[in-house]
Amino acid sequence: MKTTCPISRADFLAKAQPLEIELAGTKLVAEPREFSTGSFGWYLNTKAPVTVDGKVCQVQVGMNLIVVGSKDLPKP
Question: pLDDT tens digit string along 9-35?
Fold first, then answer.
Protein backbone atom coordinates (compact mmCIF):
# COMPACT_ATOMS: atom_id res chain seq x y z
CA MET A 1 0.00 0.00 0.00
CA LYS A 2 1.42 3.37 -1.04
CA THR A 3 1.64 6.13 1.58
CA THR A 4 0.36 9.59 0.70
CA CYS A 5 2.52 12.50 1.79
CA PRO A 6 0.55 14.68 4.23
CA ILE A 7 2.30 17.99 3.35
CA SER A 8 2.98 19.80 0.11
CA ARG A 9 6.55 20.31 -1.10
CA ALA A 10 6.17 24.11 -0.85
CA ASP A 11 4.81 23.97 2.72
CA PHE A 12 7.55 21.59 3.87
CA LEU A 13 10.35 23.66 2.36
CA ALA A 14 8.89 26.88 3.79
CA LYS A 15 7.96 25.65 7.26
CA ALA A 16 10.07 22.63 8.29
CA GLN A 17 12.35 23.33 11.23
CA PRO A 18 15.72 21.70 12.00
CA LEU A 19 15.49 18.51 14.08
CA GLU A 20 17.63 18.04 17.16
CA ILE A 21 18.96 14.50 17.47
CA GLU A 22 20.93 13.15 20.43
CA LEU A 23 23.68 10.61 19.84
CA ALA A 24 25.56 9.26 22.85
CA GLY A 25 24.88 12.47 24.76
CA THR A 26 25.87 14.81 21.90
CA LYS A 27 23.17 17.00 20.38
CA LEU A 28 23.23 17.10 16.58
CA VAL A 29 21.02 19.09 14.23
CA ALA A 30 19.48 17.73 11.02
CA GLU A 31 18.52 20.47 8.55
CA PRO A 32 15.46 20.34 6.28
CA ARG A 33 16.28 19.86 2.60
CA GLU A 34 15.16 18.57 -0.74
CA PHE A 35 17.18 15.60 -1.99
CA SER A 36 18.39 15.08 -5.56
CA THR A 37 15.96 12.14 -5.83
CA GLY A 38 13.02 14.55 -5.47
CA SER A 39 12.22 13.45 -1.92
CA PHE A 40 12.40 15.89 0.98
CA GLY A 41 13.12 15.57 4.66
CA TRP A 42 16.11 16.25 6.92
CA TYR A 43 19.82 15.72 6.39
CA LEU A 44 22.72 15.38 8.81
CA ASN A 45 26.38 14.75 8.04
CA THR A 46 28.98 15.40 10.75
CA LYS A 47 31.44 13.82 13.17
CA ALA A 48 30.61 13.19 16.81
CA PRO A 49 32.38 11.74 19.85
CA VAL A 50 31.29 8.35 21.22
CA THR A 51 32.95 6.97 24.36
CA VAL A 52 33.82 3.27 24.44
CA ASP A 53 35.53 1.81 27.52
CA GLY A 54 36.54 5.30 28.64
CA LYS A 55 38.11 6.15 25.26
CA VAL A 56 36.62 8.83 23.02
CA CYS A 57 36.14 7.70 19.43
CA GLN A 58 35.14 10.11 16.68
CA VAL A 59 32.41 8.63 14.50
CA GLN A 60 31.17 9.80 11.12
CA VAL A 61 27.42 10.39 11.19
CA GLY A 62 25.34 10.38 8.02
CA MET A 63 21.56 10.49 8.28
CA ASN A 64 18.69 11.09 5.88
CA LEU A 65 15.19 11.35 7.32
CA ILE A 66 12.87 11.21 4.34
CA VAL A 67 9.18 12.11 4.45
CA VAL A 68 7.44 9.00 3.15
CA GLY A 69 5.66 9.67 -0.13
CA SER A 70 7.43 13.00 -0.76
CA LYS A 71 9.21 11.76 -3.89
CA ASP A 72 5.87 11.31 -5.65
CA LEU A 73 4.72 14.92 -5.17
CA PRO A 74 4.86 17.27 -8.16
CA LYS A 75 7.97 19.40 -8.49
CA PRO A 76 7.63 23.17 -9.06
Answer: 999 999 999 999 999 999 999 999 999
